[in-house]
Amino acid sequence: MTKRERVLAAIERRAVDRPPIAFWRHVPDVDHTPQGLAEAMLRFHLRWDLDLIKVMSSGVYCVEDWGCRVAYQGHPGGAKRCTEHAVKRAADWARLRALDPGAGALGRELEAVRLIRKGRADDAPILMTIFTPFTIATKLAGDLALQSIDTAPDSLRAALEVITETTARYAAEALAAGADGVFFATQTASAEAVSEAVSTTWDLPYARRVLAGVRGGSQLTMLHLHGRGVFWDLWTALPVHVVNWHDRLSVPTLAEASRRFAGGLAAGLAESRTLLDGPPAAVADEARDAIHQAGGRGLIVTPGCVLPLAVSDAHLQAAVDMVRAPA
After folding, report:
1. Confidence at residue 243, expressed as pLDDT on a 0 to 100 scale
2. How many Cβ atoms are within 10 Å of 2's Cβ, its own excluded?
3. Quick one: angle between helices 153-177 and 104-119, nearest 10?
4. Domains of the chain and CATH, by start
5. pTM for the full predicted model
6. Radius of gyration (Cα) for the chain, nearest Å?
7. Half-sphere exposure in the Cβ direction for 305 (13 Å, CA)
């Protein structure tokens, strides 16, 4: 099977020659230019010969054009952070205006997608990372986003309309630039981040509108549910093809998820424990267990989130070797 055939078969619960495998890592030293990001993605993909390419844009690329200042400050996962929020007080929500998806930081990332598509030597699906509107609001404002639910709900709703319009247009532009699908990430769909009521009211409706705009063009929409205690049934009712979550840290288990969601599952490897600490035999055992839990179908073997920068090649190799070993 080709990589595209393997991935599409897996998410449709059809038979595969072997489970697809993928993982992803930030590149904070080079992700500030389209050439740097694209070259890093292509090198990583070539090194591990993975079944899909997740474009590892900085996690705050989506708020730079609204005025957030961002920097890498040593996070072990390579994530950049807002060092100065664009929204500092509730009145600042009204300053947000819809962005041109082809300009600024947004345009920079689209150019990286074009370069990756041009440089890709196989048919592995390319996924562009898109964040849900309320997740973007929390990046724009930090703690003020949640505070605004009580103190300035109308201002926050108006801002979310602007963010949703921009995000929906941007997702469509990412597909037009050469992405095969989107990695649709929410960081506000877990009990450790927000209440279920907040997730239901302030994140989910706007997320649904973004997905409506890519439904016809995305061959592969991967929903990423970040954090512990994810609101699984609430979010997996969205029109997505596959779900990625921290299955080794948070319910449901892979076995349970395979019964509760009819599409594909992207999980199985504990990025901050087994992949980080090893030994290689434990990594191989964890990958083997993931395939067993899923019954051999419907699974893309992945970590629950981004790889820590310190994960060794030996541990990644153990996962790859196990998945590719003859049955």
Report:
1. 98
2. 11
3. 30
4. 3-324 (3.20.20.210)
5. 0.97
6. 19
7. 21
